[in-house]
Write a structure and sequence with these properties.
The protein is built from seven helices and four strands; from the N terminus they run ββαααββαααα. By secondary structure, the chain is mainly α. The protein has one domain: Winged helix-like DNA-binding domain superfamily/Winged helix DNA-binding domain (Arc Repressor Mutant, subunit A), CATH 1.10.10. It has a two-stranded antiparallel sheet with strand order 1-2. The chain is elongated and about 70 Å long. The protein starts with a strand and ends in an 8-residue tail after the last helix. The model has no long low-confidence stretch (mean pLDDT 84).
Length: 164
């Protein structure tokens, strides 16, 4: 689920992208046409092939709807006020433990307290993230920034001669 870099803990890139997609769609929902994978990829500098995998997982979970074709795209299918961030992260990250005590030949296995400590930390992390909904994290400045990003993208990609 998480990796450690120096003194910091990070989510996998997959989960990071998944959260960004949900945040973007939550604030782009007022528009008439769906958001394209290309738009999200351009906004967050994510390769389309990787983004398609993330979008597929989010669609299978029922949080977004994805329509193929010329007029297709992505829309948020979940209520942002009800979608808990902890639930999203569990689905994207999986339930793997932070350390692989069973897959290694560790001589501490019988007396090591690390596994229990890390499991407790994971429970605390998810409990904290369950306290936030998609609506919580898309309000305020974050939501306003998404709206501005979306508007700039539409202006930059408007057909020549289209009304502003």
């Amino acid at each position: 689920m998480v990796t450690f870099f120096g003194n910091s803990m990070r989510l996998t890139r997959f989960s990071d992208i998944g959260l960004r997609v949900l945040i973007y769609l939550a604030r782009s929902g007022e528009r008439r046409s769906p958001v394209t994978v290309a738009e999200i990829g351009a906004q967050f500098d994510v390769p389309v092939n990787h983004l398609v995998k993330v979008v597929g997982q989010l669609a299978r979970a029922g949080w977004i709807s994805a329509t193929r074709g010329r007029n297709g795209g992505l829309r948020l299918a979940a209520d942002p006020a009800l979608l808990r961030i902890g639930v999203v992260l569990r689905a994207l990250e999986g339930d793997d433990e932070l350390v692989d005590c069973d897959g290694t030949a560790c001589s501490l296995r019988g007396d090591c307290s690390l596994r229990a400590a890390l499991a407790g930390a994971m429970r605390a992390f998810y409990a904290t993230m369950d306290g936030y909904t998609l609506a919580d994290i898309t309000g305020g400045g974050t939501g306003e920034q998404i709206v501005r990003m979306h508007q700039r993208f539409l202006q930059a990609n408007a057909p020549v001669g289209a009304a502003a």
